[in-house]
């Protein structure tokens, strides 16, 4: 049961992370198979007809189709890895602007900004102890 | 172990935001606003909520594990 759950969780993580790459790779494989089988059919047809005038062109077309598929696949893969950088007139990206705006709002309006920034929160007891400690130091 | 650090930070942020949300609700239900409190007072309230959340999660996790293993309180 736990083994299956673990397997499912790992598969879920892999799928959510590499979904686009997995789908595009599967599509590329399907495309290569489709072009290859179409070409095989065409070659079989030519052999039956005994007319080999278009054979060289068919091979050329097949390899060009493979190359085009590969280029599109690589374009899709590299596009995913890149972060969107839409810049406005001042040269500041939208993402950076939004982030700075959020930070500004956090510090100005959010009463919990300090709490959010803290790594470890102190309890009431911690404050009491700290207060006593500082009191002793003053003596 | 960058991945683990990132996961840990994400979990901590999620927990903190959840605790802040609960603290805010608690303060509003008491008829006051978070702006009425000092930073230290808010920290105490959020800390309390965070520890409650942690213990709830721990309890749920334990019950979940017991349920997965087929144990129950009723036998």
Give the topology, please:
The complex is a heterodimer of chains A (139) and B (75).
Chain A: H1 2-49, H2 55-81, H3 94-108, H4 113-117, H5 124-138
Chain B: H1 2-29, H2 39-69
Helix pairs in contact in B: 1-2
Notes on the protein architecture:
- The complex is a heterodimer of chains A (139) and B (75).
- Chain A is mainly alpha-helical and 139 residues long.
- Chain A contains five helices and no strands.
- In chain A, helix 1 (2-49) runs antiparallel to helix 2 (55-81).
- The termini of chain A are far apart.
- Chain B has 75 residues and is mainly α.
- Chain B has one domain (2-69).
- Chain B is built from two helices and no strands.
- In chain B, helix 1 crosses helix 2 (39-69).
- The mean pLDDT of chain B is 86.
- Chain A binds chain B through residues 1-2, 5, 111-112, 114-116, 118, 121-124, 127, and chain B through 16-17, 20, 23-24, 34-35, 37, 39-40, 42-44, 46-48, 50-51, 68.
Radius of gyration of chain A: 31 Å
Oligomer: heterodimer
Provide the low-confidence segments of chain B as ranges.
none
What order do the SSEs of chain A take from the amino end to the carboxyl end, as H and E?
A: HHHHH
Radius of gyration of chain B: 17 Å
Strand content of chain A: under 5%
Number of strands of chain A: 0
Q: Round the mean pLDDT of chain B to the nearest integer and report it.
A: 86
First and last CA, distance of chain B:
42 Å
Largest interface: A-B, 14 and 19 residues
Count up the helices of chain B.
Answer: 2
What's this, in brief?
The complex is a heterodimer of chains A (139) and B (75). Chain A has 139 residues and is mostly helical. In chain A, 79% of the residues lie in helices and 0% in strands.
């Amino acid at each position: 049961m736990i083994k299956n759950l673990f397997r499912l969780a790992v598969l879920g993580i892999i799928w959510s992370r590499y979904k686009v790459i997995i789908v595009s790779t599967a599509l590329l494989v399907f495309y290569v198979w489709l072009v290859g089988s179409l070409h095989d059919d065409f070659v079989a047809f030519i052999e039956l007809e005994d007319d080999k005038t278009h054979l060289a062109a068919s091979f050329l077309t097949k390899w060009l189709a493979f190359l085009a598929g590969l280029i599109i696949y690589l374009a899709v893969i590299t596009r995913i890895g890149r972060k969107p950088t839409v810049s406005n007139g001042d040269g500041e990206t939208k993402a950076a602007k939004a982030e700075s705006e959020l930070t500004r709002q956090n510090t100005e309006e959010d009463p919990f900004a300090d709490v959010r920034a803290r790594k470890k929160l102190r309890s009431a007891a911690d404050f009491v102890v700290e207060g006593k400690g500082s009191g002793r130091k003053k003596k | 172990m960058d991945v683990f650090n990132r996961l840990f930070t994400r979990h901590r942020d999620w927990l903190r935001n959840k605790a802040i949300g609960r603290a805010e609700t608690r303060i509003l239900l008491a008829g006051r606003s978070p702006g009425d409190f000092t930073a230290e007072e808010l920290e105490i309230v959020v800390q309390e909520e965070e520890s409650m959340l942690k213990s709830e999660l721990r309890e749920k996790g334990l019950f979940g594990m017991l349920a997965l293993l087929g144990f129950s309180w009723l036998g």
